[in-house]
Structures are given as structure tokens and as C-alpha cells.
# Entry
Amino acid sequence: MSKLLTMKRIAVLASGRGSNFQAIIDNVNNGFINAEIVCLITDKPGAYSIKRAESAGIPVKVIDYSSFENRDEYNKNLHETMLKINPDLFVLAGYMRLLDKRTAKEFRGKMINIHPALLPAFSGLHAQRQAVSYGVKVAGCTVHFVDEGMDTGPIILQQTVPVFDDDDEDKLTERIIKKEHVALPLAVKLFCEDNLKIEGRKVRLLNN
Ligand code: GRF
# Structure
């Protein structure tokens, strides 16, 4: 018997150009993801993601990091904003700040992130540069639930790309981002169809 699914409400956090955000918008619009994008939250008033949201008719909440006295004030404002929006899922799509522990805890199991490396290798900033310097032969991207650490939460899915001898950071970044635009919408879709179950460190894929 198939279950009755209510349409999920998702909110996206992005700090930059937002190509992953666009991939989610496109996949909502073409029906691959059954959800409504209710808000874009950004910490950067000049982020290109804002233009993408406006073109798609998605409300934008700018929480300008530089306008706060300190990180705690920013975190408090972000936390309250997130509580008010209260979606089923937050998607971190190139959100370039580490969430404070309280926020990570509050939305545990309801927040996912895309990282341009095969975690647990190369967490943090400049993941593609780290991969090229290390000399790995395979790289890729990871979509994971967010926990209180940096890129440490339970892994939903990973996609791989080869690394070639003459790759530099830019070439690898370009190859990986194409996979990100597939992996992130797929993870969002699985979440929105109630197909993900977190069991400790593992995320089980249910076949609903
Ligand atoms: C992506 O590589 C994502 O994995 C990382 O930041 C980048 C954001 O790119 N967290 P975009 O803004 O989605 O184009």
C-alpha cells in the first residue's frame, strides 16, 4: 500500500552563486522533487543566489553577517529566523559558515548539506584543492545530514568522479559540481518522499 505524502516545505541556506540552489529549484519545477521552496536564507547581501530566488518567486531572508556585533548575535538571529520559517527540511547549498551547536541540534535530522569531497576525506574549506594536492585518483561529492561537527553527519549519498594527472583545482571543481547538481536534488527528493531513515551513523534508504 502506498503511503500518503504531504508536500514538504523546504528552506535553502546559501552564501554564494547558488548553482546547487538552482538545481533544486529546477528539480522542483520539473516535478522530480515534490516540495515547495518556502525561503532562501543568505548571510551575504550580494549573493547571486538572491537573484535566483527572486527569478523563481522564492522569498528571501538576508541575515547579513557583517551587520552583527559578534558571531553569537548572528547565530541567535539565524536560529530565531529558522524557527519561524519552520520547514520540513533545511538544505545547506553552499552555506559557508559552521552552524552553532544549538542550531545543529535543534534541526537534527531535518537539515542536509552538500560537500564537494568524498567524506570523511577533505572536510572543511577548499576540499577540491585538498584532493588534488593529496593525489587521490577518485574524488566526488557527499550529501549528509548535518550534526554538530564540521561535515561529520550521517552520509545520505556520494557520487564519484575520476581525478586525472593534469587536473588542477578548477578542473576538478568543474567535474565535481556537475555531480553535485545531480546528488543534491536526489537526496532532497528521497527526504521529501520519507525514504531516508537515520540509524546511528548510517542512513538507510527505504523503499516506499
Ligand atoms: C559547492 O561546491 C558546495 O559543495 C560547497 O560550496 C559550493 C557551492 O556552490 N559547499 P554553489 O553556490 O551551489 O554554486
Summary: The helical segments are 19-29, 48-56, 71-85, 101-106, 127-134, 169-192. Residues 14, 16-20, 93-94, 114-116, 177, 180 surround 5-O-phosphono-beta-D-ribofuranosylamine (CB under 6 Å). The CA atoms of residues 2 and 208 lie 7 Å apart.
